Amino acid sequence: MAARVLTVQAIERLKPDAARRLEIPDATLPGLYFIIQPSGAKSWAVRYRHGGRTRKLTLGAYPALDLAKARTDGRAALHAVPLGQDPVAERKIVAPLPTRDLVGSVIESFIERHVKPRNRPRTAEETIRILRTKVLPAWDDRKIQDIGRRDVIELLDGIVDAGTPVAANRTRAALSKLFNWATDRGVIDANPCVRIKAPAAETRRDRVLSDDELRLLWRGPKPRRPDGGDRAPRRRDLPTLRHQAGRG
Questions:
Q1: What is the pLDDT of residues 49-83, one digit of tens each?
Q2: In the chain, is it the N or the C terminus that has fewer CB atoms within a 10 Å radius of its CB?
Q3: Domains recognised in the chain with CATH numbers
Q4: pTM (2 decimals)?
């Protein structure tokens, strides 16, 4: 993608691409990139070469790390490279994060200890898919204790903006279960999803009656004829009966 002079207004207008991650180079500071995940999560990173390899240093999530601070931090990292320093390696040495507190680690523990053993296979598979495709790309290397209400709202807004509002609803439900589980185990103090409503309204789907329900309808009260008499239900009555059952 071509470099552009990034401004606060330009950044706010950028939208996610549901099919791929976007990396927008900053023309003001070569090497600085504004990254937008398909989920809508946004962050800053710098790319440089060290020891013959391309390296990527994630600076932080947007908007917690704004444009001005991203350029300041990015410039400091890039200026260290010609001096023989590797900002990625130095960050790992100086500030290692406890692995068990990272969102990615907590999610995998949640999957193994709760999702798989306590859900039907199909439900477990869908929950795992949501957590790994919608949540991990945005929060994988963050401490779960640092995830707040605003982070959740911004993640869900990004999914809605990507054109998948129902997926945002499912992500909110999966996150709420994850945070409840983490709260019960003492990993976090409170669930940041509390009082966050489903982002999108959903239309109730029609339901096909089961064989048992159809048999009960056939055995139930007989419909009355126009003249007031009783008659057995006929095949052409089934659409009406299905409609009546759906309203019950």
A1: 998 888 999 998 888 889 999 999 999 999 999 99
A2: C
A3: 8-95 (3.30.160.390), 101-184 (1.10.150.130), 211-247 (no CATH)
A4: 0.50
